[in-house]
TrEMBL record:
GO terms for molecular function: bisphosphoglycerate mutase activity; phosphoglycerate mutase activity. Pfam families: His_Phos_1. NCBIfam families: pgm_1, PRK14115.1. Plays a major role in regulating hemoglobin oxygen affinity by controlling the levels of its allosteric effector 2,3-bisphosphoglycerate (2,3-BPG). Also exhibits mutase (EC 5.4.2.11) activity. It comes from Eublepharis macularius. This is Phosphoglycerate mutase. Keywords: Glycolysis, Isomerase. GO terms for biological process: glycolytic process.
């Protein structure tokens, strides 16, 4: 409530009483050169079922819609005004941006979608339940597949139940690479490799023009971008976890170098519980087998 009052003062051009702002978020209203907000989409149906969703086009669950709306209200209370929004080609990323902008009263803000912001391609693992896989293959192997930087899962083949659903989808017929060149499985490193050209050529120039940008994407495409911008090591990125529907603030200098570590915006107890929920997804649950 106090933060909302401070944000209203800021928007209305009044003298800002920073004592109204809780210390963890007080830096929001300080003058960084650039501000970038990253967001993992709200919960999807397969997030709820603990399945590898990847490039399968699942919609938001009812809880995911609520997460996106809550995120929009929080960003509005903090006084954010976006100039441009980037999403992946997947519906859960696009829907999240819609609900965020609607709650902020900024539905008119231009949006742009690219496959290069898509979730990591999990190959043959798509559709499988993480907890069941941990029982069958061990938690460490599942963690390597999910979290490591340079481990690529087995590729998807034409016999996979979701192969044709993905590769016959017309959204991929107009990408900047031929259909046959799209990935069949990816490590996080390979996600970063296909994401960087889009960041360097399309998003970063807009940031440097002074535009306030929201990137509504996915857990791994966002982790890959954070790794690049913050210089996170190959080993440390394993422990970077992003919950659904929680905005992440990056403050950047004129060379797009971070002014401190990325920060989750919102109730920190709620955020920590959400992070633990994501981390527990890859743990074996005896009795489910």
């Amino acid at each position: 409530m106090l933060l909302g009052q401070a944000a209203r003062q800021f928007r209305d051009g009044l003298s800002l009483d920073t004592t109204l702002i809780p210390l963890p978020e007080r830096v929001l209203l300080e003058m960084a050169k650039y501000k970038l907000v990253l967001l993992r989409h709200g919960e999807g149906a397969w997030n709820k079922e603990n399945r590898f969703c990847s490039w399968v086009d699942q919609k938001l669950s009812s809880d995911g819609v609520k997460e996106a709306q809550s995120c929009g209200r929080h960003l509005k209370n903090l006084g954010f005004e976006f100039d441009l929004v980037f999403t992946s080609l997947l519906s859960r990323s696009i829907q999240t941006a819609w609900f965020v902008l609607e709650e902020m009263g900024q539905e008119w803000v231009p949006t742009e979608a690219s496959w290069r912001l898509n979730e990591r391609h999990y190959g043959a693992l798509i559709g499988l339940n993480r907890a069941e896989m941990a029982l069958n293959h061990g938690e460490e192997q599942v963690k390597r597949w999910r979290r490591s930087y340079d481990v690529t899962p087995p590729p998807i083949t034409e016999s996979h139940p979701y192969y044709h659903e993905i590769y016959s989808d017309r959204r991929y017929k107009h990408c900047d690479v031929p259909l046959e060149k799209l990935p069949k499985a990816e490590s996080l490193k390979e996600v970063l490799d296909r994401l960087l050209p889009y960041w360097n050529e399309r998003i970063a120039p807009e940031v440097k023009r002074g535009k306030t940008i929201l990137i509504s994407a996915h857990g791994n495409s966002t982790r890959a971008l954070l790794k690049h911008l913050e210089g996170i090591s190959d080993e440390a990125i394993v422990n970077v976890t992003l919950p659904t529907g929680i905005p992440v603030l990056l403050e950047l200098d004129e060379d797009l170098r971070p002014l401190g570590q990325h920060r989750f915006l919102g109730d920190q107890e709620v955020i920590q519980a959400a992070i633990k929920k994501v981390e527990d997804q890859g743990k074996a649950k005896p009795g489910e087998k």
